[in-house]
């Protein structure tokens, strides 16, 4: 069967076996590490690390292709806008000015700006594999409890995990509806014009919304009838006991974060790595 | 039995804020501890509303105006909230798939306790205890989605029994279940009633299936009022069922066909309590008198499935060497358990999936090269849930959609849509918004939106799922009408009545193989086929046994032929 786009898929890997809580905490630690540091060496290090983990968890490129494309478009637009609005940001940060290309008017390309923007680009890029790993290797049902354990409101956590859980169902229904509408003559291919394609996608999306609302009503009723949301807190039946691997992963992530902070404090003496002085 | 009722409706009236009329009128009903009550009524009768009033979804989730009184355990429900009510009445909703929230069976059973902040060790102990009560103690770690239909039912029941409720409310427990699983579900409910002495309320419209086990009373609801409150024997002997659009048990229909007056002293409430001693001779006489119409179809082949094989993953074969021939104008059913390959077969016919081996031939031509859109010109498919097809606000636009997408001139579209609206009996509704239609009418709209493309073959997936008797008959009679116009119809179904009454021929799939291609009367009386397709033996067969008629299959066939002779 077609690999499901962007949804939990059980595989027996080291990463899948970790508890949801471990994965969430590791994700937060590493994300904080990349967000904190503006040292391209550290960021590239984390990026390489997260790509290795991606391989270990046997996530296929086809599963995440679409998301990667969207994020790339987003980061590229972000880079262009940064340059348009603040072409001297790098100069301001690093305190020197090495011109590469004179450009037009205020848009002068400097080495400092280039380093700043390349660093920022990889910063965003290295978070994506981490997020993907967390989402795709954690059973949606484990989500709620792990998020609740790190302090998130359990109702919000549940809403989030149910959304993820029903994602494959919604995809399946989308597929069914799309086929049935194609049999009625709907064209989804590239031959149709942009406007037509938009109108045609409504023919699928409208029934999808209505059938999804039906499902939501069923599950909310079922949860209400069993006392969901009565108290401010709740307990959990499944206590996932952390194993050696969990402790190892948590330690590793903490060390990476510590290294990042140490590099900033003791080597760079700031969040930025400055090769210009 | 204690004298104080556990549930007491006293001149209870309920009106949804969104409705002009009350949905429940002046309900007076007492239910005593330990009773097992069946509440039947057609769609829209108010039976589900009654259930919602009991479990607190009304007025917690669905708002409205309440008059009169409803007491549970002597407490007025309007003074309680849904959480307090859920400690007294446990509700098992239909569609057990939709209500699983836990990752494992154990977690799902514990859900209500988690919400109560019960400490973990106590939860584990209580889950163990309840899991044992329903016989799920070895499956606590399984995912609810891996379970069989019966096990899912047990898990749902355990999930509400964890609160030690006194009353269990089953809201349409049989909807979406195949006949074999439905039978198991009813047996599980009976078992809980007998062992744990709970008060049981079952809301259903499939009367005969619930009466597979004993009930104390049957309450009939229609138009928001209680029509009857009596035991099964009296109810089945009266004309209340017929008048209120509820299907009577098939064996009762057969007795009536034989000219026998059904009376309470024959104990006709259940097939296992029925005593036909005095009327056996009459029944045998009728059985001999049935004549057989010539129903052979000598038309040429319209669709041939030729040694077809298919696999989704290249390893596990979903369909293996399926081979049959369909003549023009036939109406057949394809039956089998969930996952037997029925839906896959229909997907291959219309081109959603491509066969690995073999071929589909339409009037002798291989369809391999034809696209989905091209096939749609002669094979139409109607999905089970009409809400998954309807994308326009107005009936006319919805039906015209397929033609507009094909760029048919607007003049011609008008003509063709009008013609189809006439055929489908939807002409009076031409300017109505679709949202104002009933489920059955929506179903017609989706059928019309396919018919407008003039297909020669129509495939319908569970056309009557979840429908009450009136809607069922409406949809099926309509399909019979279009079948008479020469359109070949393939029905994918679990519904045994549908097979018996409308499709002379049935194809049985089991684990991807075709295990039978024969008459409905044989499929419903052959033990091996029944098991393979998750069906159950029709009560007509038992009736034949009771009356000492040796050829049960022939008796079932006679029933079908007699019924058809009445229809024409």
Would you mind describing this structure in some detail?
The complex is a heterodimer of chains A (277) and B (568). Chain A has 277 residues and is mainly alpha-helical. Chain A has helices at 14-17, 20-36, 40-56, 61-85, 89-94, 111-137, 140-149, 154-183, 194-225, 244-268; strands at residues 99-104, 107-110. A two-stranded antiparallel sheet of chain A has the order 1-2. In chain A, strand 1 and strand 2 (107-110) form a beta hairpin. In chain A, helix 2 crosses helix 7 (140-149), helix 2 (20-36) runs parallel beside helix 10 and helix 4 (61-85) packs antiparallel against helix 6 (111-137). The model of chain A is unreliable at 1-5 (pLDDT under 50). By secondary structure, chain B is an alpha/beta fold. Chain B folds into two domains: 7-240, Rossmann fold (3-Layer(aba) Sandwich), CATH 3.40.50; 301-562, Rossmann fold (3-Layer(aba) Sandwich). Helices cover 38% and strands 22% of the residues of chain B. Chain B has 23 helices and 20 strands. In chain B, the strands form four sheets. Chain B has a six-stranded mixed β-sheet, with helices on both faces. Chain B has a six-stranded mixed β-sheet with strand order 16-17-18-13-19-20, with helices on both faces. In chain B, a hairpin with a 5-residue loop joins strand 11 (301-311) and strand 12. Chain B is globular, with a radius of gyration of 25 Å. The model of chain B has no long low-confidence stretch (mean pLDDT 90). At the A-B interface, helix 8 and helix 9 of A face helix 4, helix 5, helix 14 and helix 15 of B.
């Amino acid at each position: 069967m077609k690999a499901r786009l962007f949804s939990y898929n059980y595989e027996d890997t080291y990463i899948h076996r970790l508890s949801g809580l471990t994965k969430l905490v590791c994700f937060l630690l590493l994300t904080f590490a990349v967000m904190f540091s503006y040292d391209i060496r550290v960021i590239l290090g984390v990026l390489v690390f997260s790509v290795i983990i991606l391989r270990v968890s046997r996530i296929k490129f086809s599963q995440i292709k679409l998301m990667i494309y969207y994020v790339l478009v987003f980061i590229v637009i972000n880079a262009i806008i940064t340059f348009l609005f603040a072409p001297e940001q790098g100069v301001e940060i690093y305190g020197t000015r090495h011109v590469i290309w004179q450009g037009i008017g205020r848009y002068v390309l400097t080495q400092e700006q280039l380093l700043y923007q390349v660093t920022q680009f990889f910063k965003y890029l290295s978070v994506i594999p981490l997020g993907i790993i967390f989402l795709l290797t954690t059973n949606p049902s484990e989500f709620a409890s792990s998020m609740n354990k790190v302090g998130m409101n359990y109702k919000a956590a549940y809403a989030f995990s149910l959304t993820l859980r029903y994602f494959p169902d919604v995809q399946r229904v989308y597929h069914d509806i799309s086929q049935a509408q194609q049999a009625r003559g709907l064209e989804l291919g590239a031959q149709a014009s942009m406007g037509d394609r938009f109108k045609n996608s409504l023919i699928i999306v409208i029934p999808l919304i209505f059938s999804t609302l039906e499902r939501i009503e069923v599950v909310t009723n079922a949860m209400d009838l069993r006392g969901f949301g009565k108290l401010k807190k709740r307990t959990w039946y499944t206590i996932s006991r952390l194993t050696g691997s969990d402790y190892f992963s948590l330690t590793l992530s903490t060390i990476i974060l510590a290294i990042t902070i140490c590099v900033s404090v003791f080597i760079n003496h700031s969040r930025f790595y400055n090769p210009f002085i | 039995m204690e004298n104080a009722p556990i549930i007491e409706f006293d001149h209870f009236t309920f009106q949804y804020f969104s409705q002009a009329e009350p949905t429940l009128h002046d309900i007076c009903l007492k239910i005593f501890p330990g009773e097992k009550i069946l509440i039947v009524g057609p769609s829209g009768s108010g039976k589900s509303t009654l259930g919602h009033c009991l479990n607190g979804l009304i007025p917690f989730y669905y708002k409205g105006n309440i008059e009169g009184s409803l007491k549970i355990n002597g407490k007025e429900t309007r003074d309680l909230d849904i959480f307090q009510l859920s400690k007294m009445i446990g509700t098992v909703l239909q569609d057990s798939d939709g209500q699983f929230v836990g990752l494992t069976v154990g977690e799902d059973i514990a859900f209500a306790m988690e919400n109560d902040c019960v400490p973990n060790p106590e939860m584990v102990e209580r889950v163990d205890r309840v899991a044992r009560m329903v016989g799920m103690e070895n499956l606590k770690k399984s995912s609810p989605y891996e379970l069989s239909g019966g096990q899912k039912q047990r898990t749902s029941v355990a999930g509400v029994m964890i609160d030690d409720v006194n009353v269990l409310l089953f809201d349409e427990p049989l909807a979406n279940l195949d006949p074999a699983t439905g039978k198991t579900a009813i047996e599980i409910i009976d078992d809980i009633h007998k062992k744990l002495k709970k008060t049981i309320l079952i809301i259903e419209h499939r009367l005969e299936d619930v009466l597979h086990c004993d009930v104390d009373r049957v309450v009939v609801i229609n138009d928001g009022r209680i029509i009857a409150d009596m035991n099964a024997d009296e109810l089945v002997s009266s004309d209340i069922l017929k008048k209120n659009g509820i299907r009577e048990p098939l064996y009762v229909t057969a007795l009536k066909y034989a000219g026998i007056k059904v009376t309470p002293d024959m104990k006709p409430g259940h097939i296992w309590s029925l005593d036909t001693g005095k009327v056996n001779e009459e029944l045998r006489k009728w059985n001999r008198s049935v004549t057989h119409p010539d129903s052979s179809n000598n038309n040429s082949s319209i669709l041939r499935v030729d040694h077809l094989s298919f696999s989704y993953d290249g390893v596990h074969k979903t369909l293996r060497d399926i081979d049959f021939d369909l003549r023009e104008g036939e109406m057949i059913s394809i039956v089998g358990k969930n996952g037997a390959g029925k839906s896959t077969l229909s997907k291959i016919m219309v081109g959603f999936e491509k066969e690995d081996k073999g071929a589909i031939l339409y009037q002798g031509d291989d369809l391999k090269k034809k696209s989905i859109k091209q096939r749609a010109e002669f094979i139409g498919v109607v999905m089970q849930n009409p809400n998954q097809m309807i994308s326009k606000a107005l009936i006319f636009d919805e039906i015209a959609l397929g033609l507009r997408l094909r760029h048919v001139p607007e003049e011609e579209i008008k003509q063709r849509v009008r013609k189809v609206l006439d055929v489908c009996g939807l002409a009076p509704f031409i300017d109505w918004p679709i949202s104002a239609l009933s489920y059955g009418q929506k179903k017609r709209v989706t059928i019309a939106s396919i018919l407008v493309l003039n297909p020669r073959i129509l495939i319908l997936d569970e056309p009557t799922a979840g429908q009450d008797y009136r809607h069922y008959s409406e949809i099926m009679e309509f399909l019979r009408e279009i079948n008479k116009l020469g359109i070949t119809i393939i029905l994918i179904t679990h519904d045994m009545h549908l097979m018996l009454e409308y499709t002379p021929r049935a194809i049985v799939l089991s684990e991807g193989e075709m295990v039978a291609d024969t008459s409905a009367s044989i499929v419903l009386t052959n033990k091996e086929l029944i098991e393979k397709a998750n069906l159950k033996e029709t009560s007509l067969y038992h009736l034949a046994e009771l009356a000492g008629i040796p050829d049960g299959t022939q008796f079932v066939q006679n029933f079908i032929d007699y019924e058809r002779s009445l229809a024409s």
